[in-house]
Design brief:
Helix content: over 70%
Order of helices and strands: HHHHHHHHHHHHHHHH
Length: about 425
């Protein structure tokens, strides 16, 4: 795994005084391939913990638990994933803000990466033993709580350490790790041989995958004298980022929200779409195949898109056209409801989402207001990833059940994604 250009900082441990001085500075030294690889692996491990359950395991549990409860499997899955997403809405900015204030000798971010990954692994093991919908919901909420602590710290490490003109390429490698985490989580959940074994496999990978980063690379330490004086009122007020005061941040947030909402509508009922609409002979295997196809095309564009964006010094055209391409692919699912159509849509979605993942991440770090609040501000931005997980079930369940089924669902998703792509043009402070 490499990044473009020469590197003067491979993430090797630095003296404590140096890391203290650098904690709030705008980074200027390029990070090296070792640091990028280790952080990407940690990011991928977190996504394994999320998407093994989301793609396979939670849907399988909902199918087992739904009979006799008065809920359909679709409604139960929507309720559980929606509850977890609500937890994620709060957890990501909260833990981002707490990591901003952390003055531990291990740094601002590392304690939260370690604690979050360990807590996520234990929560996945709780889900492995779930005996009904309530323990299933509680376990998934704990997974969201703990893994969001780790994820908030991992993403905040990028603006802490990576200069602006390298963030597209580093964001590309993080995006590649993300999709490999999705594919890996789906593969582990499928190949483990059962729901419980699938959760155990995902838990082990999540815990082990963060170790190379936290053991090899010293985090930047925040001097206690720079930490703001604590007050509950000030802490809570800090989560509001006024769109009027920071309009570019507001438009960037809305763009990410709408495109992620479109993607969430596509993914939520994918297993049921293959089983109930396409009548695919092995829907679990079908999800794995589509995820792999999507992952291959995403990997082909995610790093290239980020590097290209860094070289030309522009972000918005990449985000716009990747969003448009994703909307077109989603419309294919509505108009060509066959297995070949699903494969084509998965491939095209991967191309678009690959470019979007890396360049949008770089764009977001470019519009952050203050170095002291990087973790919290990125956490607020990452609400645009979690909120669609709440909104998608609320939109998808009635559309599938009462308002026209999967064809209408995917048309609605395509329109939402197209609007999100076009709103990028409202951002003024980034090329």
């Amino acid at each position: 795994m490499t990044t473009t250009g020469s590197s003067v900082d491979d993430g090797n441990p630095a003296p404590a005084t140096a890391t203290s001085a650098l904690a709030l500075a705008e980074p200027v030294e390029r990070v090296g391939r070792g640091w990028t690889s280790a952080l990407s692996l940690a990011n991928g491990a977190i996504w394994v913990g999320w998407y093994g359950p989301l793609q396979i395991l939670l849907a399988s549990q909902a199918k087992d638990f739904a009979p006799g409860t008065g809920m359909s499997k679709e409604s139960m899955l929507a309720w559980v994933t929606g509850a977890g997403a609500l937890v994620s809405l709060v957890a990501n900015p909260l833990f981002g803000a707490l990591s901003d204030r952390t003055t531990a000798r291990w740094g601002r971010r590392t304690p939260w990466i370690v604690g979050g990954a360990a807590g996520g692994a234990l929560s996945l093991l709780l889900l492995a033993g779930a005996g009904g919908v309530w323990t299933m919901a509680a376990g998934w909420c704990l997974v969201q709580l703990t893994l969001n602590a780790a994820f908030a710290a991992v993403t905040a490490a990028v603006p802490d350490r990576v200069p602006r003109l390298q963030r597209g390429s580093v964001g590309g490698w993080l995006g590649a790790a993300q999709i490999l985490g999705v594919v890996g989580g789906t593969g582990l959940a499928t190949a483990a041989g059962g729901i419980g074994a699938g959760y155990v496999a995902c838990a082990v990978f999540t815990a082990v995958g963060v170790l190379p980063y936290v053991l090899r690379y010293k985090d930047l330490q925040l001097p206690p004298t720079t930490r703001p004086v604590w007050s509950w009122a000030g802490f809570v007020r800090g989560f509001w980022l006024s769109p009027r005061r920071y309009p570019d941040l507001g438009w960037a947030w809305l763009t990410r929200f709408l495109i992620n909402l479109s993607n969430a509508l596509v993914l939520l009922y994918l297993l049921y779409y293959l089983r109930d609409r396409l009548h695919y002979h092995d829907p679990e295997q079908g999800v794995l195949i589509l995820t792999a196809v999507n992952g291959l095309t995403l990997l082909a564009t995610v790093v290239v898109g980020g590097v290209w964006s860094d070289r030309v010094g522009r972000r918005k055209p990449f985000v716009i056209w990747s969003g448009v391409l994703m909307a077109v692919a989603t419309a294919v699912l509505a108009g060509w409801q066959t297995w070949p159509g699903a494969v084509v849509a998965a491939a095209v979605l991967g191309i678009g989402f690959g470019v979007f993942t890396s360049v949008d991440f770089a764009l977001m770090t470019d519009v952050l207001p203050k170095a002291l609040d990087r973790g919290k501000d990125l956490g607020v931005i990452n609400v645009a990833n979690a909120l669609p997980q709440v909104a998608a079930p609320a939109l998808a369940a009635p559309i599938v059940t009462y308002l026209g089924g999967y064809r209408v669902l995917y048309l609605v998703a395509a329109v939402i994604g197209m609007v999100g792509a076009l709103l990028v043009r409202r951002i003024r402070g980034v090329d």
